[in-house]
Design brief:
This protein is of the alpha+beta class. It is built from 10 helices and 6 strands. Strands 1-2-3-4 form a 4-stranded antiparallel beta sheet.
């Protein structure tokens, strides 16, 4: 109940007591249904899944769950790998073993450092850098070194990371209640270069080019002079309409 009191307003609680489901905005419903559609493991009707989830999760809780599934949320929870400039090779496989253990993900790659959030301080979570330093001599346990990271240095430390405004602490979005004021962009290999939709919603920005209205779509193009360009404009207008 203490957690619910921090997540939901009295009006939301009254609505739940009266209707048996939590009130969600149409934007959050759409984001959740899109997540259900793209779920590779469980296929179900988005509307039914949403109605079921609203019996359990208030809007603040489901937003937090959606953020956890994004690349930005995974960065905050599990961290991001960065190259260790000191060429740490303590955890490399012995000579002759090959790299199958790493490429098959049977063995975690300990040769790179990890930058992630440290949640030991509930009031002011900080960033930390984990450097793996090999195995212990007696029990063969994994040893590591942890150092604090200044968020002002994130753009220099993490390739593909950039603040959208002034430097800020991204870990504050994991507080309860969360502080989503820190805006940034995170480009990760094999992931979409755009900001995840749930974070676009939270930050009030539009990062997908076809969702915004390019001037090209509103210009008058002579179909006789530029037939291919005119046809392309028509198709993009249709796509932009359905995305809305």
């Amino acid at each position: 109940m203490n957690i619910i009191n921090k997540q939901a307003s009295q009006e939301e609680i009254d609505y739940f007591n009266k209707n048996g489901i939590w009130p969600w905005s149409q934007e959050v419903i759409k984001l959740y249904e899109e997540a259900i559609i793209h779920n590779p493991y469980i296929r179900t009707i988005p509307e039914d899944a949403t109605n079921y989830a609203r019996k359990i999760y208030n809007e603040s809780a489901i937003i937090r769950i959606l953020t956890y599934q994004s690349k930005e949320g995974q960065f905050l929870l599990n961290g991001v790998l960065i190259n260790d400039l000191s060429n740490n090779n303590i955890d490399n496989l012995p000579s002759g073993f090959g790299d199958f253990g790493y490429t098959s993900h049977l063995i975690g790659n300990k040769t790179n450092d990890i930058i992630k959030c440290n949640f030991k301080n509930d009031i002011n979570p900080t960033l930390e850098r984990i450097t793996y330093t090999g195995k212990g001599d007696i029990f063969n346990q994994q040893t590591k070194k942890i150092t604090q990271v200044d968020y002002n240095d994130l753009e220099k430390l993490i390739p593909g990371f950039s603040f959208l405004s002034s430097p800020c602490n991204p870990c504050k979005s994991m507080l309860l209640p969360p502080d989503y004021s820190c805006t940034y962009r995170l480009n990760i290999k094999n992931k979409s270069p755009f900001i995840s939709k749930i974070w676009q919603y939270l930050w009030g920005i539009n990062d997908n080019p076809l969702i915004s209205q390019p001037s090209f779509l509103t210009e008058n193009i002579n179909s006789n002079e530029f037939p291919l360009l005119s046809e392309l404009q028509s198709e993009l207008q249709k796509e932009n309409y359905y995305r809305k």
